[in-house]
Design a protein that fits this description.
The complex is a heterodimer of chains A (about 160) and B (about 210). Chain A is α+β, with helices and mostly antiparallel strands and about 160 residues long. Chain A has a domain of about 90 residues: Immunoglobulins (Immunoglobulin-like), CATH 2.60.40. Chain A is built from three helices and seven strands; from the N terminus they run αααβββββββ. Chain A is rod-shaped. With about 210 residues, chain B is mainly α. Chain B folds into two domains: about 70 residues, no CATH class; about 80 residues. Chain B contains ten helices and no strands. In chain B, helix 4 crosses helix 6. The chains are: A alpha+beta (about 160), B mainly alpha (about 210). At the A-B interface, helix 3, strand 1, strand 5 and strand 7 of A face helix 1, helix 3, helix 4, helix 5 and helix 7 of B.
Amino acid sequence: MFEHEDDVVQRVIEQLRRPVAIDPALDARVMEVIAAPRPPTRAIWPWLAAAAVLVSLIMWRPWSRSFRVEAAAFQFVLVAPHANSVSLVGDFNDWDPKRSPMRTANGIWATVVQLAPGRYRYAFLVNGVEWRADPGAPAVPDDEFGTPSSVVTVGGRGS
Amino acid sequence: MMLALLLVAAQVGAPAPALIQDPRLDRLDPDTRVQVSTVLDSARRVGLPTEPLIQRALEGATKAAPGSRIVAAVRRLSADLRVARIALGGEASAPELEAGVAALRAGARPQVLANLRSARRGLLTVALSVLADLVASGVPADSAAVAVLALAPQARDADLVEFRRAVERDIALGAPPGAATSVRVNAGANVQSAGSNPGAQPRPRRP
């Protein structure tokens, strides 16, 4: 039994020791494949990153002077002891009397609004019919609608 | 794919669609709305800000002004915005242009606006507004222009507002407007902005 196994092993060794015939052109073909130019890689991430940067720049618009929006709280006050209602209307609320109703304490009407930098015209509407300018603010010298108005200016950064 | 992304980005950054559809203009009567929309379209085509024009129209509507007066006011403002932009340069912001219009209407020459642009870094909204407000307080336009130009290079916005308040106080107390302005300009180096306590809770400002 052992002799039989030795024969088998011996035949395997002989087979393994036989020189293998290799095509002489194999090396050339392998090198040709390695050296061949590869098709361009279709990596998507660089394109997505570039698009994200582009969209961010367009939305942020750093080239625009008006991108810096810093709202500041402004208090508007009118002394009107006999008024039943007072509204603040101006460029900052589309001149809509319903947007900024004022609250009263002993006839002193007040409200606070957030204003971004800019120059705003405004006025007080008393009892829904009477227009009044703000006595504590510069007047609008060129009111074109025949009623008094005032102006408030809000500075930007560093003001 | 890149082309599609660029198209999407262009849509995002594109100006708003036709303002003629702005629902706020429904407060105008139909004829006035059409005429105002025409002015808005013209302004938009030349790159002028349209929001000030809309606000002027809404002001007229709320004040129950006749349509013809509203249209005239919007047209006049559009023309003045154009002059202000020429004086201040194409990079001027909408608030700067509005303040520039106020200064021009107060009597400042366009060259004053251009000089202010050269003299002061940053936004000119407050400087131009102070110039206009000084004139409204009785200060001669030339004196107001000289004063603001003198303060413009160094003064902060808050300093300019405080300067205007100081001049108005002096005028209210009886000082001649021109003299009050020159005295306060000379004292400008000592003007301190109000509310500069760094640890204090910010309080609402007053006009």
